[in-house]
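#structure-requests
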Amino acid sequence: MSKRLVAPSILSADFNRLGQDIEMINNSEADYIHCDVMDGVFVPNISFGIPIIQHVYKIASKPLDVHLMIVNPDQYVETFKEAGASILTVHYEACTHLHRTISKIKSTGMKASVCLNPHTPVHSLEDIIGDLDMVLLMSVNPGFGGQKFIENTYDKVRKVRQLIDAKNPQCLIEIDGGVNYDTGKKLIEAGADVLVAGSFVFGSSSPTETISKLKLV
């Protein structure tokens, strides 16, 4: 059964009042704080890095779910652990030696997660799924918030759920991109556990209420 967890993405927060937005998440029913780190190389956008993660960690009461959309993530694993990450996600497409990267993440005490871009097939995870704490599926092309949801994601979730149930039942499935009440409900029904929501949460009139409702879809 799906866990029904919610991870608001601070990529869509108001950085003029980031502290207040983090406190909002602290006081909400959210489970994680999702932090999208982009380098402008692996994805066509630059977001934020270590200083922001450190700032968020100082005031956060929820675990930091850090998603690295960067090249050469291996060289920054310890740095993000020191900055406060509890979960570290790397992209399958960015890791030449994925098993080594996952082992490095887990050796620091962080939970290890692998992300697949929309075009990357689920079978790519077959030989690593047993070592993972979470799989993140991109339901939009990575790099920008507010994109249209890719419908094929539902089928990918079902395929990952089958793989996880067979080889690593404790592993979570997280979805990032285009999440709202409608897509969220269908994703949970397909087998997803964690819904990342950025613009849908921070663009709503009541973010805390939106988070609560997402946990009930």
